[in-house]
Specification:
The protein is an alpha+beta fold. Helix content is 29%, strand content 41%. The model has no long low-confidence stretch (mean pLDDT 94).
Length: 212
Amino acid sequence: MEEFYTINKNTLAEITEKKSKFIANIFYVENKEEAENIIKNIKKKYHDARHNCVAYRVYENDSIIEKSSDDGEPSGTAGAPMLDILKNNNLCNVLVVITRYFGGILLGTGGLVRAYSECTKKAIENSEKVCKCKGYKIEIELDYNNLENFKYYCSKTNIQITEIEYLDVIVCKIELEKKTKPNFINDIETKKININKIRNLCEKIINKSVEK
């Protein structure tokens, strides 16, 4: 997966269908373990509810891990449609837990699918989405008199400076998209920017930049 969307912060949405109350909590998660811990906490928080249905997708170890649970609802009426909505929106590193307080009126399988789908969509609509992509974290060293030019270069090439250390020389940690790295290396080799040393730290998922 070269890029995907996720959410910036956790949000909540509610709907009522034939006296049943559906509460959707949507979370940004980094990995499966974090998602499972949140699910446990949500089930404790809403321990008096009839169902706590789950869907999540996380990007971990270069693959996507998916999970859904109907938590006692008829098979395929809750977790699966919730997960389908995450996939259709290319959302990843996202967990949705929908809590249902039963209102005494049966909704039927079609009604349940509609209710859980509507609640999931509403939670996504309430969220601020951000695009993520594959990238690199890199450490570079440069002289003090080249710092301002380097900052300007980064602002024009969608490279993010995440940390600056003022030592005998300037040490910067930067993040850049995978597609940006070849041009960056070429600009160093052709002296378009003056860098003393460069060290690859790791590959990571970063925020996709907005083209300028």
